[in-house]
Amino acid sequence: MITVNPDGKIMVRRCLVTLRPFRLFVLGIGFFTLCFLMTSLGGQFSARRLGDSPFTIRTEVMGGPESRGVLRKMSDLLELMVKRMDALARLENISELHRAGGDLHFPADRMPPGAGLMERIQAIAQNVSDIAVKVDQILRHSLLLHSKVSEGRRDQCEAPSDPKFPDCSGKVEWMRARWTSDPCYAFFGVDGTECSFLIYLSEVEWFCPPLPWRNQTAAQRAPKPLPKVQAVFRSNLSHLLDLMGSGKESLIFMKKRTKRLTAQWALAAQRLAQKLGATQRDQKQILVHIGFLTEESGDVFSPRVLKGGPLGEMVQWADILAALYVLGHGLRVTVSLKELQSNLGVPPGRGSCPLTMPLPFDLIYTDYHGLQQMKQHMGLSFKKYRCRIRVIDTFGTEPAYNHEEYATLHGYRTNWGYWNLNPKQFMTMFPHTPDNSFMGFVSEELNETEKQLIKGGKASNMAVVYGKEASIWKVSGKEKFLGILNKYMEIHGTVYYESQRPPEVPAFVKNHGLLPQPEFQQLLRKAKLFIGFGFPYEGPAPLEAIANGCIFLQSRFSPPHSSLNHEFFRGKPTSREVFSQHPYAENFIGKPHVWTVDYNNSEEFEAAIKAIMRTQVDPYLPYEYTCEGMLERIHAYIQHQDFCVAPGPALPGAHTPQSPFVLAPNATHLEWAQNASLAPAAWPPAHSLRAWLATPGRACTDTCLDHGLICEPSFFPFLNSQDAFLKLQVPCDSTESEMNHLYPAFAQPGQECYLQKEPLLFSCAGSNTKYRRLCPCRDFRKGQVALCQGCL
């Protein structure tokens, strides 16, 4: 039970009666004026507080006279309000005394309410007047001090004309006009003065020379590098699961996959550790930013995880995280723009300024969405640190699309590409573009016992269709070839649906709906055939099917699909022609595990079905798609790929005293001479180089494959000389250096030799019937095309 003191009620009632609406209004005006005054004073003091900004030298102090005038006006206003309130209070007190019937006796502790209020306002007015006088004195002193400093340093705050810094004056002009365009400049202390511009442009950015009167010790003091720690293989992935976060269906899928493969990762780490022996491995600090999962990029994948959407990207990212963690490196994982900005040290603003600190990561793995986000928010630091970035790029980026100027001039510019990175910084899902690095993913590896069980449990007449979304089943002509297949095999599907069976799926197909990964694996272990409809391209499912003992049947494309004739590839930074749904399976695995036929040819299709039913295969998984294979590959990249060092071999025009090449005994190609010294920074090692002259219209990618080799773009600089053509007995009537992604090459007719002028345009891809390209090839490890035999 709550009781209320009667005296309290009386006091509240009297206060409400005493404080008339007009008094409340006047009191509110006075309080507002006081608050505004104190805010103004706070702004004046904070704007001139020493030590808040690194720019302690000003050429002028703004607002001195204006501030004193405002203070005087406020003080006068308060004094006028006090006089008027005093007069009003007297009149109202007299009228209340008359209404009270002559009651003129007040207790000692109950003076008229207006009296105390008036005394307080008068005291405040006096304090404001005193503050105004003191602020006026401070401002006068500040103006005097800064005028003396400005006179002494005015000549030192002019843009210098230093030939080593040719852009300095132009950047100062830009800062004068645009420094307020991004709050990050004020964050670094820019305040509109010449000195602040020069200090920013010399100490935060690097367009102007250091100012001689500045304390250079603080500006040049770099943080001491952390002591090197050796990387140690990990087998427990529980901490990685915590690093991956939660809250998205895509992350849940990735964590389930990682947890399911933990034992295989641990066994692979043990095997690789034995293979490497006592090799020292420095632990790297690595940021993994999955840009396509950020809300800012739309995150179209997460909502579709449980509806049959594409999972290939999430499969690959889960395996990348697992591989980096198992190799023993320090990881930070981000899936939001806010997390990315925090980890990079992005200053507040719109992304025009450099980072607030040196980049704390040795490597950054991201995708095209993340790359764009970094460029928008890292300012000049993006250019400084982009050599540390690795871009996960499913379909690859060819050099002609990567070089911004060249792509713009020659029609190769797309919505992706044009980043001017080293093409090897792009990392693909399959080894289809040797200009890029092959990252890959893993499929579950079976032991011998599991392989024997699968072979004994196979149904000879069971087929599973590759395609979880109903839209994939809309392919034209499917009724014809599915009708043929249905004569020989029972057809199963795993098409997502909510309530009703998708009408695109024929009635004779047994649809299981969308299956969890373990159940889908069990279905593949029973099936004889895994059949594709031509889409999706180059996904992980065919490799999983082959690893579980299925034969993969796919369609041959005629003409091949590319950005020139197919909507899916249009806009992608590649001119690669795709001759089947899964070129890797066709070219690197092939029969008996992979059959590629023309689905429009009913006789060829039916003959293939009959042959497949007679064919027995064992479960097969290429080594490069095992956990050990992926660990081996990523270990080699981290150890040897360094895109932050200056290029080693000289560009055209430089002459070496002795050519490192010799003509092979059969006079068909060049080899690295046994007595030639190796380029110290070359990786892969230069002794694996084999140089061939392609036939007209043939790309280097295909030329090297024709000889059982892989095109190696890092070897192009060794061949970019007239000497290489002479050793191949090619007569060069003239030799020119130009920017062209097909060079070095020999042109017929005319007997002209062309050398490459731009290192970023060295390209294995590309062909023209006019040119015979000079192609650098190398050998490769069995089951690991990304690495040469001496690369590990």
TrEMBL record:
GO terms for molecular function: alpha-1,6-mannosylglycoprotein 6-beta-N-acetylglucosaminyltransferase activity. This is alpha-1,6-mannosyl-glycoprotein 6-beta-N-acetylglucosaminyltransferase. It is a single-pass type II membrane protein. Its EC number is 2.4.1.155. The gene is MGAT5B. The lineage of its organism: Eukaryota, Metazoa, Chordata, Craniata, Vertebrata. Pathway: Protein modification; protein glycosylation. Belongs to the glycosyltransferase 18 family. InterPro entries: GT18_cat, MGAT5_Glycosyltransferase. It catalyses: N(4)-{beta-D-GlcNAc-(1->2)-[beta-D-GlcNAc-(1->4)]-alpha-D-Man-(1->3)-[beta-D-GlcNAc-(1->2)-alpha-D-Man-(1->6)]-beta-D-Man-(1->4)-beta-D-GlcNAc-(1->4)-beta-D-GlcNAc}-L-asparaginyl-[protein] + UDP-N-acetyl-alpha-D-glucosamine = N(4)-{beta-D-GlcNAc-(1->2)-[beta-D-GlcNAc-(1->4)]-alpha-D-Man-(1->3)-[beta-D-GlcNAc-(1->2)-[beta-D-GlcNAc-(1->6)]-alpha-D-Man-(1->6)]-beta-D-Man-(1->4)-beta-D-GlcNAc-(1->4)-beta-D-GlcNAc}-L-asparaginyl-[protein] + UDP + H(+). GO terms for biological process: protein N-linked glycosylation. It comes from the Eukaryota. Residues 184-777 form the Glycosyltransferase family 18 catalytic domain. It is found in: Golgi apparatus membrane. One of its GO terms (cellular component) is Golgi membrane. The chain crosses the membrane at residues 21-41. It holds the Pfam family Glyco_transf_18.
